[in-house]
Amino acid sequence: MTKIQNTKHYDLEERTLKFARGVIEFTNKTPKTLANIEIIKQLVRSAGSIGANYIEANESLSKKDFVMRIKICRKEAKESGYWLKLIVTNKVMEREKNNLIQEATELTKIFGAILEKSK
Predict the structure, then answer these.
(1) DSSP assignment, residue 88?
(2) Quick one: pLDDT at residue 114?
């Protein structure tokens, strides 16, 4: 008999990694104004934190620890969306920026749904 593994959490690990990489690629092309430099620092931190905390949640020792890490994931996803909305880009980059904002919104909703199911 073949055992089927649940790999959903790995898919989300990959998705959060892809988001963080996308943010890094985007910020590398962003105009380096004084304001953008500070926003980029915050954005890269929050985008990377989503996946890092999700990995921690998957390795949690208790349900309470899992829920706390997922709450952090949701918070960091919302924060990433905020920083993306603040960053100033040129017209060519607007579509890429909007795609990243959409992904941050979707990640926020996914982590919110995980929290609801964890109650």
Answers:
(1) -
(2) 96
Domains of the chain: 8-117 (1.20.1440.60)
Q: Which residues contact 15 (CB under 8 A, 6 or more apart)?
A: 107
Count of positions (residues) in the chain: 119
User: Has this prediction a pTM greater than 0.85?
Assistant: yes
Structural element, H or E, at residue 57? helix 34-58
State which H helix or E strand residue 69 sits in.
Answer: helix 63-86
Q: Using CA atoms, how far apart are residues 102 and 107, in angstroms rounded to an integer?
A: 9
Least Cα distance to 40 among 57, 53, 52, 28 occurs for 28
Residues in the chain predicted with pLDDT less than 70, given as ranges, are 1-10
d(CA 12, CA 114): 11
Instruction: Give the Cα separation of 26 and 49 in Å (integer).
Output: 17
